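Q: What would this chain look like folded?
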Amino acid sequence: MSDIFDKIKKTIGVGVDTVGAKSKELWDTTVIRAKISDLKAKRRDLLEDLGRLTYEMLSGGSLAEPVLRTKADAIRDIDLQIAAAEGEIQRIREASRDQLPADGEDVPAQPVEAEKPESASESTASEAEPSACDQPKPARTCECGTAVLEGARFCVACGRPVSDD
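A: My prediction, written as structure tokens:
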């Protein structure tokens, strides 16, 4: 009886360690993704400034290349920061995989997914994400001419109530 409790305790301990490692990985990658998002917004703003500045210079008849080059260098620096942050995410994922227990006897058995036949779709990412094909098809149109989805009570364009006929 004690042997069963020891196995349960060991399995729970491994599970807790796994959850801890995964949650740390998730937290760290979320922080870095937020940083990447901020960097991309800053990059977009700099690109808009560069385009506006270039347009104004060309409209004025003079093109000051050093000013444009400074903006372009700032954009390049942000691109390097984004690449470094994405590399950091990859490093965190690899480190998290290395922290997980490697012994097969200490790890609880994981459910095995059934193999798909060769004729099945090779892209598993598209199966996990909803696609436009999964959405309901418009069954009727509103008085304003907008297609109304099946089961909708009101038109999304004009707000009129839609009859069920």
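Confidence is low (pLDDT under 50) at residues 103-133.
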